[in-house]
């Protein structure tokens, strides 16, 4: 299985602790029946001018596509939205002839800054992280990919070194292992 991790963090190498460590763990994955490619999209497209054909080629070659990003205002960084708008074209990714991604897996690796207990229906934010990811799940449904249960690193603003290392190990396993699909209403 070929997994491609698209990292969307505007300051990945400057001041990202969590996403930088997760990307490092992904780059270090060694598995006999799997390969992992990591792409830093803000480094590739600092001007937001996305090479659509290159991105389509990357997606075509992948079996599992992972969007890795910090959660900003309960959503994605701006470049991920721009990337979706540009790359997931009608007639290629969706629509009656848009079947290029059908059957592939789409995973989300997200790192909200606040602690887990805030992301609960009875918590401070009233929504789970999975609730907040539903627009991405709807996108997955539209483009015909299998939406995997997300890899969530809550508390990114204050995560301990020990917990971050445990998350990096878990991420490596998640990237290459069997990951169940997230149901539409679970």
TL;DR?
Pfam families: Flavodoxin_2. This protein is an alpha/beta fold and 186 residues long. It is built from 8 helices and 6 strands; from the N terminus they run βααβααβαβααββα.
Please outline the helices and strands.
Blueprint: E1 2-7, H1 12-15, H2 18-27, E2 35-40, H3 41-44, H4 52-61, E3 64-70, H5 78-87, E4 105-111, H6 129-132, H7 134-143, E5 146-147, E6 151-152, H8 161-176
Parallel strand pairs: 1-2, 1-3, 3-4, 4-5, 4-6
How many strands?
6
Q: What summary fits the major beta sheet? A: 6 strands, parallel
CATH topology: Rossmann fold
Helix-strand string: EHHEHHEHEHHEEH
Low-confidence stretches: none
- Provide the number of structural domains: 1
Q: Which geometry do the CA atoms define? A: globular
- Structural class, by secondary structure, is alpha/beta
Pfam family, one: Flavodoxin_2
Organism: Propionibacterium ruminifibrarum
GO molecular function, one term: NAD(P)H dehydrogenase (quinone) activity
InterPro entries: Flavodoxin_fold (IPR003680), Flavoprotein-like_sf (IPR029039), KefG/KefF (IPR046980)
Structure description:
The chain has helices at residues 12-15, 18-27, 41-44, 52-61, 78-87, 129-132, 134-143, 161-176; strands at 2-7, 35-40, 64-70, 105-111, 146-147, 151-152. Strands 1, 2, 3, 4, 5 and 6 form a six-stranded parallel β-sheet that branches. The chain has a single domain (2-176), classed as Rossmann fold, CATH 3.40.50. It contains eight helices and six strands, in the order E-H-H-E-H-H-E-H-E-H-H-E-E-H. Residues 1-174 form the Flavodoxin-like fold domain.
């Amino acid at each position: 299985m070929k997994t491609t991790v698209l990292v969307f963090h505007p300051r990945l190498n400057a001041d990202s602790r969590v996403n930088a460590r997760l990307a490092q763990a992904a780059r270090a994955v060694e598995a006999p029946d799997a390969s992992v490619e990591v792409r830093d999209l803000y480094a590739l497209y600092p001007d937001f001018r996305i090479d659509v054909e290159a991105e389509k080629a990357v997606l075509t070659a992948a079996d599992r596509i992972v969007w890795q990003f910090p959660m900003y205002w309960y959503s994605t960084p701006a470049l991920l939205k721009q990337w979706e708008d540009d790359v997931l074209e009608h007639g290629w990714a969706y629509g009656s002839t848009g079947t290029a991604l059908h059957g592939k897996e789409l995973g989300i690796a997200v790192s909200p800054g606040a602690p887990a207990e805030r992301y609960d229906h009875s918590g401070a934010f009233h929504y789970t992280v999975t609730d907040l990811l539903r627009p991405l799940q709807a996108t997955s449904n539209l483009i015909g990919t299998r939406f995997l249960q997300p890899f969530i690193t809550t508390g990114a603003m204050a995560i301990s070194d020990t917990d971050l290392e445990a998350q990096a190990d878990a991420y490596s396993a998640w990237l290459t292992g069997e990951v169940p699909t997230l149901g539409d209403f679970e």
